[in-house]
Amino acid sequence: MHATPVTPTPSTIPSLDERKDEYRNAMARLGAAVNIVTTDGPGGLAGFAATAVCSVSDSPPTLLVCLNRASSAYPAVKANQVLCVNTLEGGHADLSRRFGGKTPAKERFDGANWSLLETGAPVLDDALVSLDCRVKTVSDGGTHDILICEVVAIRENDGGQALIYFNRQYHTL
Asked: For residues 46 and 77, is the Cβ–Cβ distance under 8 A?
């Protein structure tokens, strides 16, 4: 038996808004580590919560960070060209909410201990791992910029469970 391909008609193709909602729901089912991405420098102090972070290469150590252009942190990251990806542990859900909400930039950093490595971007002292980076290239990703970042320093902490975001809720792993 040979199947005949079906060509969608305009009436069977979902609208862009319908596909956007469907896509967002699908992405909610993609579990990911929760990170606080921080920056400081001439553009100011800023930070945001992110799950869109992944490894690109180990030679040189490089990672990818997606940053919404509408984010309050966007101008600072763009101006500073440095950032630190701080991977959160299970007890950091409230910190993630603070960095993911409308809390003013400087207040986001209250209630946690921060230090510096090489770039001047804040490093969360009790993060599972902190990856201090310089932004090398920026690509257009629709509503987001895709930042390719070279890791220049790493701090790891022993113990703890990872904070994961899945199905619009925090979990530990």
From this structure: yes
